[in-house]
Amino acid sequence: MVSPSSNVANESLTNRFKQYTIAVQIRQADHSRSIPLHYVHHRSPRADAIPLLFVHGWPGSFLEVKNIIGNLTNPPNSSVPAFHVVAPSIPGFGFSPAPLWDGFGPDEAGQAFNALMVKLGYEKYVYQAGDFGGLIFPYIAARYPENLVSGLSNFWLVQPNATDLARYESNKSSVDESAYIKNILNFINNESGYRIVQQTSPLSLAYALTDSPLGFALWIYNLMRIAIDPTVSTWTKEEIITWSLMYTIQGPYGGLRLYEMMLREGAFAGFGIGLPPYVKQPVAVSQFPHDVWYQQPLDWAQRQGNVKRRFIHDHGGHFAAWDTPEALLEDIWIWFGDREASNTKVFHGRY
Q: Rounded CA gap, 288 and 296, in Å?
């Protein structure tokens, strides 16, 4: 559903942030690469604030942090943790230039974002993300266990195995298991057409979408409209234009190509879900009903990492930070406020 609004991109939406650019170094094979990054950086006035890396997804951008950044840096009271928030644009998205060389995927993005946090003086930090940000999470966690302390993901995919599917077919699955398998199979079989095109032929698709900004806006809106909870939010024309602008500024290919790299580096596996690195750091997951992985059982989530806690909501969708910020904020405060379970005790007075 689209709410009426003006047909222009919202400058105030993009200009409300404190935004910066920087170049960081990563390693690819035997080469050192310089990666220019755009990022948002809001520091909390609280002396006990925790550095938090927020990473967006597709078809989103750094704009996704808008509805939570104020309460993260300036919480309503001292009983919940405060955060120094860093929200970079993935290279190829928004104002981070797309790499001019082949091979920039989730591992390389993780390297760049860790280098950014370290350059900003945050040797240790926590992580929050969904969509591509959630898929990058395992790569950065595996490569930098001394830096990334803990995370909360609202996009934590696990491919049901043969035994899971056999139990499902014979009606032996639990309620959560059945619901999760149904959701995942529906996504793979009925809603993955865009993903298969983008991960196999991103350049061919980009020719057409670059030629028509309106066509690109409608391409991503087709996903945006089913990814939010219509009972709590709707998209305005202004928001659709502004979100699509974050890609058309440098051309849609920069964002589309990351699907191909997700496939190459193991986050995807054909029509199904891939097998990214196991996350050893403590993790919490937040599930919302208008997302493809809703009702994933906690023990299944633990196949992919050290998942300590599952938050499950009765409203909200794929863009949790955008359309249900209050629910996601509560999860963030509860999880990172549990200093033992999330290991945030390491931050006491640190920054």
A: 10
Distance between CA atoms of 37 and 89, rounded to whole angstroms?
A: 7
Give the span between the Cα atoms of 192 and 273, in whole angstroms. Answer: 11
Gap between the Cα atoms of 277 and 267, Å rounded: 9
pLDDT of res. 12: 73
Burial 104-118 (b: 16+ CB within 10 A, else e): bbbbbbbbbbbbbbe
DSSP letter at 3?
Answer: E
3-state secondary structure of 268: strand
* CA 198 and chain centroid, separation: 18
Beta-strand runs (E) in the chain: 2-3, 19-28, 31-42, 50-55, 83-88, 125-129, 148-153, 235-236, 268-269, 272-273, 279-287, 305-312
Q: pLDDT value at position 270?
A: 82
Per-10-residue mean pLDDT for the chain, 351 residues long?
A: 47 85 92 95 97 97 97 96 98 95 95 98 98 97 98 96 96 96 92 93 96 96 93 93 95 95 92 92 98 96 98 97 97 97 89 67
- For position 3, what pLDDT does the model report? 42
Cα–Cα separations (whole angstroms), residue 39 to 76, 91, 157, 198, 329: 25, 10, 26, 25, 21
CA 128 vs. chain centroid, Å, equals: 7
Full-model pTM: 0.95
DSSP 60: -
Dmax (CA) for the chain in angstroms is: 56
Q: Measuring CA to CA, which residue among 170, 250, 252, 245 is closest to residue 205?
A: 252
Angle at which helices 66-73 and 325-337 pack, to 10 degrees? 40
Q: Are 319 and 225 in contact (CB under 8 A)?
A: no
Secondary structure of residue 127 in the 3-state scheme:
strand
